[in-house]
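Purpose: get a first structural picture of the assembly so the mutagenesis plan has something to point at.
Setup: four entries, given in the order below. No constraints added.
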Amino acid sequence: MQLKSLRLLVAVADTGSFGAAAKRLHTVQSNVTTHIKKLEEELGVQLIHRAGRVRPTSAGLALVEYAERMLSAHDEAVSLFKGQEKACGRLRIGAMETTTALRLPPILAAYHAAQPDVDIQIKTGPTAELVELLLNGQVDCVFVAGRLEHGRYHSLKAFSEQLVLVGSTPMTKMPSSQALLTSAFLAFRQGCSYRQRIELLLASQGVNAGRIFEFGSLDAMLGCVAAGMGYTVLPRGTVDAHQHRFGIHTLALPASIANIDTYFVAPEPETWTPALASFAETLRDAVVVNEPQLTAS
Amino acid sequence: MQLKSLRLLVAVADTGSFGAAAKRLHTVQSNVTTHIKKLEEELGVQLIHRAGRVRPTSAGLALVEYAERMLSAHDEAVSLFKGQEKACGRLRIGAMETTTALRLPPILAAYHAAQPDVDIQIKTGPTAELVELLLNGQVDCVFVAGRLEHGRYHSLKAFSEQLVLVGSTPMTKMPSSQALLTSAFLAFRQGCSYRQRIELLLASQGVNAGRIFEFGSLDAMLGCVAAGMGYTVLPRGTVDAHQHRFGIHTLALPASIANIDTYFVAPEPETWTPALASFAETLRDAVVVNEPQLTAS
DNA sequence: CGCTACTATCTTGTTTATAGATAACCTGAC
DNA sequence: GTCAGGTTATCTATAAACAAGATAGTAGCG
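Result (structure tokens, whole complex):
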């Protein structure tokens, strides 16, 4: 049973004529006869009344109903890839908590305005988890800290973040090793790339193993920092956006520790649905506006 | 885009290997490659990651979802016609009010027991309307009074009915012409074949145009007869079944007027779905039990 | 570095699809 | 009844597509 044959069957049922059906599907009448006959032989049932007016038999009518379901699914699938201008379908994005909170909203807003027919799904998590999701095909693209080494993926430097030390009291210089040792550090759960920077920072201050508490959400973490529970390390933009809600203070870190880039990573462009391709384009435009020097690989 | 290709795509996504997909669908690996490649060319998107583990790209995953919808619709459609033993789908039956009330229940019960997966739909109406429904393909088969002359239909004598005169008082002989003239006659709406018999009866008694009231339901009609509103003509079996509910009395009519056969009429057997073929068989069995001499044409 | 398992490509023979020409058919009108 | 108009079925030659096997190329693993 071929979709072509079913389309002809539906056309015959619609038009009430083999010739008209042929014309509608840009073929000739003899082919319509052949296709219908083949369907009938395959199913062992007469599908079309030929004597007198041409019209579907009750068996034909029943098949037409299924044919319409199949054909509409087919047409919808084709429009996923060949939709003119307007993409549709689904876009699954993975991103870090901080990226989702600070960077994504304006981009998603612009994308949704351009492609209103795409369902957007966001999953948040630390970098290591996101990479896993991407490799397993559970998301279509991710925003992660650091370029993905894996060769067969497309990376685009999306955002440059500057990490700052966040504490509950004003700071003018790095806290002493003693202070760092006795304080706790607050970080996202295992796999968060910012957490590695905390460890780098502690090492640079000659402190080897501070206590690290794990948090799942940004709000909880900042709340605890404000309450004097300890320090954390976050992108400056993220802290600035929340500063009015919490009594927190920041201290710039040395560039080697502070500078960290967020990359947009997705499989090779050849595998992109129009929905994803359009998102990458939206992102590239947004990045160019904010930061003219961009790097793709 | 062919169903065959989609089935291969699903198999590749399932098994994670072109070779295994080929084996599952009884073909060779090179054909799988060709089909997938053709799909990819047609849609302009890579559907399967080949490097490393073979697995669908996000575009491929999206297509697989639609492919599964199309294939399940296809398989369901095929099972409509090629279902082993158990028919499925829908069976639309048209029948007269009296047939539906008296004759159909045991047959439908037997049929439903044999084919529990078939949805049964009953439409009731007078013979003329039922024939119209059948000719328009709005029902799959009908039970009507009298054989359908139309050559391209299959007829089977299903039930023999004996019409009786029904009134509110005991009768031992035909009411006088005078009584008939002053009484009303109650019948189903235009197109009912029993109604023609009423007119025949009146004509045979030398009465040309009695008043005839039209009713839509059997219960209403019998209730009005019992209330002394007038006479009606119905199959004996139907009246017997309702006699305990109404105070009504019957009188046998001359055979030429009384005997009327109910026929099962459907399009040619070549156009039958398994659901309809199985129903015809159930009916034939039931008819043979009740009345060994049956006539098919 | 070679082994293993896999996919891509090429080739061959066969099958199937297409379009056109023609025959057979039904229907309605005269 | 017969004829005209429109419709479907059949046939045929050409072109396209397909299936299977053999072979070449490639990635991953020890």
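Chain B touches chain A at residues 1-3, 43-47, 49, 51-52, 55-63, 66-67, 69-70, 73-74, 76-78, 80-82, 89-90, 92, 137, 140, 152, 267-268, 270-273, 276 (CB under 8 Å).
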